[in-house]
Amino acid sequence: MTEPLVIYRINRALDTLKEVPVLVEHEFLNTAINRLYYACFYAVSAILLHHKIEASTHAGVRQMFGLHFVKAEIIDAQHGHFYSRLFNIRQISDYDDYIDFDRERVMDMIEPAEELIKLSRCFNKIAAYLDNAYPDNAYVVSTHIPATFGTHEILPDSR
Known about the structure:
The chain is mainly α. It has a single domain, classed as Nucleotidyltransferases  domain 2 (Four Helix Bundle (Hemerythrin (Met), subunit A), Up-down Bundle). The chain is built from five helices and no strands. The protein has helices at about 5-25, 30-50, 60-70, 75-95, 105-135. Helix 2 packs across helix 4. The longest helix is centred in the last third of the chain and has 31 residues, at about 105-135. The two termini are about 20 Å apart.
């Protein structure tokens, strides 16, 4: 059963996101980028896990998210673009030499990361509800989740 792992990944995303302000405060900005990326990675992988979509690499997670949710217009393209951009920035931050991100760039990425994580939480809660209501997967997600969906706390935090 993948549901406990989905919940674990969402909680891991939330916990990892909490590390970012401490890192920014102490000027560990490249590490803050890394933690923003991993918070989003855990959230996106939770969506994929819930839908039994496998990806064995970080690039695979990005590709499957784009293919099954962004390209299919289930999740707004801005979230897919942000995740891809964050993936690339994290790669640069972790592996390139002489790269130091500034505070403003890191701060500009916090809100979109929070939105993506909230979107993942809400999306998985809705999908879990539908899975329980329609155990034969006899439902169709036909509505587009707007960009603003991830900016509202639709369901309370279960933690």
